Amino acid sequence: MAMFKLSFIEEILDSLSASCFSEQDFDLVFPNAGSVVEIIFKHDESYSFIVYESEISEMVKVSNSGELSPLSIAKSGVFIEISVKPGHHKHSEVWSATGFTELPDLIIDWCHCIKEELESKFREKCDLDIVRKNIDDNIHFFIKDDGSRFDIEEVNSIKKSFDRLYAYIEDNRIKFNFSINELKVIKEQFDYFIANASFYPRNLWFKLMSNKIIDLLCDVIKSKQGKELIFIELKQLVERGNGK
Predict the structure, then answer these.
(1) Taking the CB of residue 102, how many other CB atoms lie within 10 A of it?
(2) pLDDT digit string (tens) for 121-147?
Protein backbone atom coordinates (compact mmCIF):
# COMPACT_ATOMS: atom_id res chain seq x y z
CA MET A 1 0.00 0.00 0.00
CA ALA A 2 1.16 3.50 -0.81
CA MET A 3 2.15 5.97 1.85
CA PHE A 4 1.46 9.49 0.66
CA LYS A 5 4.29 12.02 0.52
CA LEU A 6 3.94 15.13 2.64
CA SER A 7 3.65 17.21 -0.52
CA PHE A 8 0.63 15.19 -1.70
CA ILE A 9 -0.98 15.36 1.75
CA GLU A 10 -0.68 19.12 1.41
CA GLU A 11 -2.52 18.84 -1.93
CA ILE A 12 -5.32 16.98 -0.18
CA LEU A 13 -5.51 19.66 2.51
CA ASP A 14 -5.48 22.37 -0.15
CA SER A 15 -8.38 20.66 -1.95
CA LEU A 16 -10.41 20.71 1.27
CA SER A 17 -9.72 24.42 1.68
CA ALA A 18 -10.56 24.99 -1.99
CA SER A 19 -13.99 23.46 -1.42
CA CYS A 20 -16.94 25.14 0.29
CA PHE A 21 -15.41 24.10 3.62
CA SER A 22 -12.07 24.49 5.41
CA GLU A 23 -9.48 21.83 6.10
CA GLN A 24 -10.25 22.48 9.77
CA ASP A 25 -13.67 20.91 9.22
CA PHE A 26 -12.10 17.51 8.51
CA ASP A 27 -9.97 14.87 10.18
CA LEU A 28 -7.40 12.94 8.11
CA VAL A 29 -6.62 9.41 9.23
CA PHE A 30 -3.89 7.19 7.78
CA PRO A 31 -4.66 3.64 9.00
CA ASN A 32 -1.95 1.02 9.35
CA ALA A 33 -3.96 -1.43 7.25
CA GLY A 34 -6.93 -1.45 4.93
CA SER A 35 -7.60 1.99 3.52
CA VAL A 36 -4.91 4.39 2.33
CA VAL A 37 -6.48 7.52 3.80
CA GLU A 38 -9.75 8.39 5.49
CA ILE A 39 -11.21 11.88 5.50
CA ILE A 40 -13.93 12.43 8.08
CA PHE A 41 -16.23 15.44 8.32
CA LYS A 42 -15.85 16.60 11.92
CA HIS A 43 -19.39 17.95 12.26
CA ASP A 44 -21.02 14.69 11.16
CA GLU A 45 -18.76 11.65 11.26
CA SER A 46 -21.12 9.66 9.06
CA TYR A 47 -19.79 11.78 6.16
CA SER A 48 -16.54 10.22 4.98
CA PHE A 49 -14.19 9.85 2.02
CA ILE A 50 -12.21 6.61 2.32
CA VAL A 51 -9.60 5.65 -0.25
CA TYR A 52 -8.62 2.04 -0.94
CA GLU A 53 -5.75 0.89 -3.15
CA SER A 54 -5.58 -2.57 -4.71
CA GLU A 55 -2.92 -4.09 -6.92
CA ILE A 56 -4.31 -6.02 -9.86
CA SER A 57 -2.63 -8.26 -12.37
CA GLU A 58 -3.83 -10.08 -15.44
CA MET A 59 -2.42 -12.16 -18.26
CA VAL A 60 -2.44 -10.33 -21.58
CA LYS A 61 -1.85 -12.01 -24.93
CA VAL A 62 0.61 -10.21 -27.16
CA SER A 63 0.90 -10.92 -30.87
CA ASN A 64 4.35 -11.71 -32.20
CA SER A 65 4.86 -12.02 -35.94
CA GLY A 66 7.66 -14.50 -35.42
CA GLU A 67 5.59 -16.89 -33.36
CA LEU A 68 2.73 -19.15 -34.41
CA SER A 69 0.71 -18.31 -31.32
CA PRO A 70 0.51 -15.10 -29.22
CA LEU A 71 2.52 -14.81 -26.05
CA SER A 72 0.88 -14.34 -22.64
CA ILE A 73 2.54 -11.85 -20.32
CA ALA A 74 1.60 -10.64 -16.87
CA LYS A 75 0.37 -7.04 -16.66
CA SER A 76 -0.02 -5.36 -13.29
CA GLY A 77 -1.54 -2.09 -12.16
CA VAL A 78 -3.18 -0.25 -9.31
CA PHE A 79 -6.91 0.05 -8.78
CA ILE A 80 -8.16 2.92 -6.63
CA GLU A 81 -11.61 2.76 -5.06
CA ILE A 82 -13.21 5.45 -2.91
CA SER A 83 -16.10 4.88 -0.51
CA VAL A 84 -17.96 8.20 -0.14
CA LYS A 85 -20.76 9.31 2.13
CA PRO A 86 -22.78 11.12 0.93
CA GLY A 87 -22.53 10.56 -2.81
CA HIS A 88 -24.14 12.24 -5.78
CA HIS A 89 -27.42 10.36 -5.55
CA LYS A 90 -27.13 7.89 -2.66
CA HIS A 91 -26.10 8.23 0.95
CA SER A 92 -23.26 5.81 0.24
CA GLU A 93 -21.50 5.38 -3.11
CA VAL A 94 -18.30 3.85 -4.46
CA TRP A 95 -16.23 5.99 -6.80
CA SER A 96 -13.12 4.94 -8.70
CA ALA A 97 -9.99 6.71 -9.90
CA THR A 98 -7.28 5.82 -12.35
CA GLY A 99 -4.63 7.53 -10.23
CA PHE A 100 -4.07 9.41 -7.00
CA THR A 101 -3.77 12.67 -8.95
CA GLU A 102 -7.58 12.57 -9.37
CA LEU A 103 -8.18 12.63 -5.61
CA PRO A 104 -8.08 16.42 -5.05
CA ASP A 105 -10.83 17.03 -7.62
CA LEU A 106 -12.89 14.13 -6.29
CA ILE A 107 -12.54 15.50 -2.76
CA ILE A 108 -13.89 18.87 -3.88
CA ASP A 109 -16.77 17.04 -5.59
CA TRP A 110 -17.48 15.10 -2.39
CA CYS A 111 -17.47 18.31 -0.35
CA HIS A 112 -20.14 19.67 -2.68
CA CYS A 113 -22.22 16.57 -1.95
CA ILE A 114 -21.89 17.30 1.78
CA LYS A 115 -22.94 20.91 1.21
CA GLU A 116 -26.06 19.82 -0.69
CA GLU A 117 -26.96 17.31 2.03
CA LEU A 118 -26.51 19.83 4.84
CA GLU A 119 -28.54 22.47 3.03
CA SER A 120 -31.35 20.00 2.47
CA LYS A 121 -31.20 18.81 6.07
CA PHE A 122 -31.18 22.22 7.74
CA ARG A 123 -33.04 24.35 5.21
CA GLU A 124 -35.90 26.16 6.89
CA LYS A 125 -39.01 24.40 5.75
CA CYS A 126 -42.16 26.29 4.91
CA ASP A 127 -45.02 25.04 7.07
CA LEU A 128 -46.77 23.76 3.98
CA ASP A 129 -49.18 21.45 5.76
CA ILE A 130 -50.41 24.23 8.04
CA VAL A 131 -50.64 26.78 5.26
CA ARG A 132 -52.41 24.35 2.94
CA LYS A 133 -54.91 23.43 5.64
CA ASN A 134 -55.69 27.07 6.34
CA ILE A 135 -56.12 27.84 2.66
CA ASP A 136 -58.18 24.69 2.13
CA ASP A 137 -60.42 25.61 5.07
CA ASN A 138 -60.95 29.03 3.55
CA ILE A 139 -61.81 27.53 0.19
CA HIS A 140 -64.45 25.26 1.67
CA PHE A 141 -65.81 28.11 3.76
CA PHE A 142 -66.13 30.60 0.93
CA ILE A 143 -66.76 28.35 -2.05
CA LYS A 144 -69.43 25.73 -2.42
CA ASP A 145 -68.35 22.63 -4.29
CA ASP A 146 -71.23 22.81 -6.73
CA GLY A 147 -69.22 22.61 -9.94
CA SER A 148 -70.04 26.20 -10.87
CA ARG A 149 -67.65 28.35 -12.82
CA PHE A 150 -66.54 31.95 -12.50
CA ASP A 151 -68.43 34.53 -14.52
CA ILE A 152 -66.68 37.35 -16.37
CA GLU A 153 -66.95 39.75 -13.43
CA GLU A 154 -65.41 37.19 -11.08
CA VAL A 155 -62.56 36.45 -13.50
CA ASN A 156 -61.83 40.19 -13.65
CA SER A 157 -61.84 40.28 -9.85
CA ILE A 158 -59.38 37.38 -9.75
CA LYS A 159 -57.11 39.18 -12.21
CA LYS A 160 -57.12 42.30 -10.05
CA SER A 161 -56.30 40.16 -7.00
CA PHE A 162 -53.33 38.56 -8.74
CA ASP A 163 -52.17 41.94 -9.98
CA ARG A 164 -52.28 43.28 -6.42
CA LEU A 165 -50.43 40.25 -5.08
CA TYR A 166 -47.74 40.46 -7.75
CA ALA A 167 -47.31 44.22 -7.17
CA TYR A 168 -46.87 43.48 -3.46
CA ILE A 169 -44.24 40.83 -4.18
CA GLU A 170 -42.45 43.06 -6.68
CA ASP A 171 -42.38 46.00 -4.25
CA ASN A 172 -40.84 43.74 -1.59
CA ARG A 173 -38.41 41.98 -3.94
CA ILE A 174 -35.33 43.10 -2.03
CA LYS A 175 -36.81 42.26 1.38
CA PHE A 176 -37.74 38.75 0.20
CA ASN A 177 -34.46 38.35 -1.71
CA PHE A 178 -36.16 37.61 -5.03
CA SER A 179 -34.12 37.48 -8.21
CA ILE A 180 -35.40 38.96 -11.45
CA ASN A 181 -35.77 35.43 -12.82
CA GLU A 182 -37.86 34.35 -9.81
CA LEU A 183 -40.16 37.34 -10.34
CA LYS A 184 -40.54 36.28 -13.96
CA VAL A 185 -41.49 32.73 -12.92
CA ILE A 186 -44.07 34.05 -10.44
CA LYS A 187 -45.56 36.38 -13.06
CA GLU A 188 -45.81 33.57 -15.60
CA GLN A 189 -47.52 31.35 -13.02
CA PHE A 190 -49.99 34.09 -12.09
CA ASP A 191 -50.83 34.69 -15.76
CA TYR A 192 -51.42 30.96 -16.17
CA PHE A 193 -53.92 30.86 -13.32
CA ILE A 194 -55.75 33.94 -14.59
CA ALA A 195 -56.04 32.38 -18.04
CA ASN A 196 -57.51 29.17 -16.58
CA ALA A 197 -59.95 30.81 -14.16
CA SER A 198 -62.72 30.68 -16.74
CA PHE A 199 -62.01 27.04 -17.61
CA TYR A 200 -61.97 25.07 -14.33
CA PRO A 201 -64.86 24.80 -11.87
CA ARG A 202 -64.18 27.38 -9.17
CA ASN A 203 -63.58 24.91 -6.34
CA LEU A 204 -61.04 22.87 -8.32
CA TRP A 205 -59.39 26.03 -9.63
CA PHE A 206 -58.82 27.36 -6.13
CA LYS A 207 -57.38 24.07 -4.94
CA LEU A 208 -54.95 23.81 -7.87
CA MET A 209 -54.03 27.47 -7.62
CA SER A 210 -53.41 27.51 -3.87
CA ASN A 211 -51.28 24.34 -3.88
CA LYS A 212 -49.07 25.55 -6.71
CA ILE A 213 -48.65 29.08 -5.44
CA ILE A 214 -47.84 27.93 -1.91
CA ASP A 215 -45.13 25.69 -3.36
CA LEU A 216 -43.85 28.49 -5.54
CA LEU A 217 -43.74 31.14 -2.84
CA CYS A 218 -42.33 28.86 -0.16
CA ASP A 219 -39.50 27.93 -2.50
CA VAL A 220 -38.45 31.54 -3.08
CA ILE A 221 -39.39 33.29 0.16
CA LYS A 222 -36.78 32.71 2.85
CA SER A 223 -37.99 34.81 5.77
CA LYS A 224 -40.70 33.72 8.16
CA GLN A 225 -42.16 37.21 8.03
CA GLY A 226 -42.40 37.06 4.26
CA LYS A 227 -44.22 33.74 4.37
CA GLU A 228 -46.75 35.04 6.90
CA LEU A 229 -47.42 38.16 4.83
CA ILE A 230 -47.91 36.11 1.67
CA PHE A 231 -50.31 33.82 3.53
CA ILE A 232 -52.42 36.84 4.47
CA GLU A 233 -52.43 37.95 0.85
CA LEU A 234 -53.45 34.46 -0.33
CA LYS A 235 -56.29 34.36 2.18
CA GLN A 236 -57.54 37.70 0.93
CA LEU A 237 -57.16 36.45 -2.63
CA VAL A 238 -59.54 33.60 -1.86
CA GLU A 239 -62.03 36.04 -0.39
CA ARG A 240 -61.75 38.53 -3.24
CA GLY A 241 -61.95 35.84 -5.89
CA ASN A 242 -65.33 34.83 -4.56
CA GLY A 243 -66.54 38.42 -4.37
CA LYS A 244 -66.25 38.68 -0.57
Answers:
(1) 14
(2) 776 555 556 666 666 665 555 566 667
